[in-house]
Amino acid sequence: MSAQPKLKPTASFDPLAARADFEILSREVYGKPLVYLDSAASAQKPRHVLYAMQAFAASEYANVHRGVHCLSAAATERYEAARETVRSFLSAAHTDEIVFTKGGTEAINLVSYSHLAPRIQPGDEIVLSVMEHHSNIVPWHFLRERYGAVLRWVDVNDDGSLDAEAVDAAIGPKTKLVAIAHMSNVLGTISPLKEIVARAHAKGVPVLADGCQGAVHLPVDVRDLDIDFYALTGHKLYGPTGIGVLYGKRALLKFMRPFNGGGEMIREVGRETITYADPPARFEAGTPPIIEAVGLAAAVDYVSALDREAVAAHEHDLLSYATGQVQELNWVRVIGEAKGKGSILSFETQGMHAHDVATILDREGVAVRAGHHCAQPLMERFGVASTTRASFALYNTRDEVDAFVAALRKARTILG
Amino acid sequence: MDQSLRELYQEVILDHSRHPRHFGALADATHSGEGYNPLCGDRVKIYLLVDGDNRIADIGFEGKGCAISQASASLMTDMLIGRTVDEAEELMGGFVHLVKGESANGLAEEDRERLDVMAGVSAFPMRVKCATLAWHTMKSALEGGEAAKTE
């Protein structure tokens, strides 16, 4: 195994130096340098994360919270330290407010099954925006199908922005939850989350934020936001797959019923009786993703050691540079132009289907996403079946934007 | 340019996708079917007129999709009109083998030559479903079954 990569906290950001931490970015595809512009789907992992997972598995691994032996104690310590790392990252008040899940999707489903389902009555409402990812739509559809809940959709403006007033207007006496993306995976729109929370709370309604994109690009302070639930996933945050996080306020988690049943989530099991563990263990049935938790903590440490403002400025520079270039092409329509949006560029290409464009880009080494991006209500809102999406991460460069635009022009010459 | 891209997006394919043959609904259809690719959200609807001799007298199709799916649907209409249902099913089977890069020995020489323009798809495994959507939909329309799906 190679030597442990060291974190070097700096007060500025050098994308080329950071790039060197991501081994995969130096590979080629079809004989061309890889230009990875699909980080909104899943980000690549720095060697710090890969090292941490391998080193942990090679030297300290065992099951957690079970054995009294040395390795189990070491693994438990690392697993709980990862929880503390995430708590600090989100500025949560208590470590027991951090529940490890298998991803962002499971985190949202946990709220649906454990918090809302036991409380929902026919006609109760859930407010959500049209720019939600299916993972923040389908769990609420379940409540509609099974318990007669009503989904109240909040539209976005034509530029893709979301107004807190519009969310507020959708909240009524029967609203039981507001579920909103912190940052849209298609439009890049950043929700006015703090204002939404304030308005929802004024009406006594809790708010869940889908932070799968937001936590990657924005500082998150759950106490400052006063948010009730915040879901995020590891693999978009330069961490491993198979792990996500649900932050929930202590007062809410405490009254949530279990979701999965199994080991570790109980206090005592009898033949006819059962009592459950306190949160977060209550929601972590079975052997949790232990190695992945260590990897997630390494990813959080990696991101936290960077000057996050400088990273955000770099990503914003890539976004505006790319947006300016594609807008010069009169056959491209950018979808999502909200002020201050995150580094996601979705667009429609006149006379060319997104999948054909993405296939040609791929052969030029440029990896983008094409399709409906698991956001079909949003596609319908903008009257498109699919879009092409380039998403920019900390390791991307202006040269890569140039390669992307050149490949796009090539697609036009082939298909146009 | 990349040779496999040139084969995938050859002029015949682009021509079919820009000017699809037999595009539109059939008022007197005896069969119809709808296909959907949940991966990309593409849809296709196929209308068929099968006469008393079990021969496909006419085909129409509607839908939006990528160049590959549109060209494939268009080419299919061209090739199936005038065939009996049995002949059509044989051709459909051969086509699916062809775009997957498998042996399509069952195809007549002349059919094989005409379908060869789609053979480039086999180098793009992620796009095979685009090419087969209309054909699967045709099969389900003939069988009167559920909506076809490629995912």
What is the H/E order of chain B? HHEEEHHHHE
Strand content of chain A: 15-25%
If you average the pLDDT of chain B, what whole number results?
90
Oligomer: heterodimer
Spatial order of strands in the largest sheet of chain B: 3-2-1-4
> Pairing-aware structural class of the strands and helices of chain A?
alpha/beta
SSE-based structural type of chain B: alpha+beta
Question: How large is the radius of gyration of chain A?
Answer: 22 Å
**Shape summary of chain B:** globular
Q: Strand order, main sheet of chain A: write it out.
A: 4-10-9-8-7-5-6
On the 0 to 100 scale, the average pLDDT of chain A is 96
Biggest sheet features of chain B: 4 strands, mixed
The end-to-end span of chain B amounts to: 29 Å
Rg of chain B from C-alpha positions?
A: 14 Å
N-to-C terminal Cα separation of chain A, in Å? 49 Å
- What low-confidence regions of chain B span 5 or more consecutive residues with pLDDT below 50? none
* Percentage beta strand of chain B: 15-25%
Largest sheet of chain A: 7 strands, mixed
Q: Describe the global form of chain A.
A: globular
If helices are DSSP runs of H or I spanning 4 or more residues, what is the number of helices of chain A? 15
Instruction: Give a count of the beta strands of chain B, DSSP E runs of length 2 or more.
Output: 4
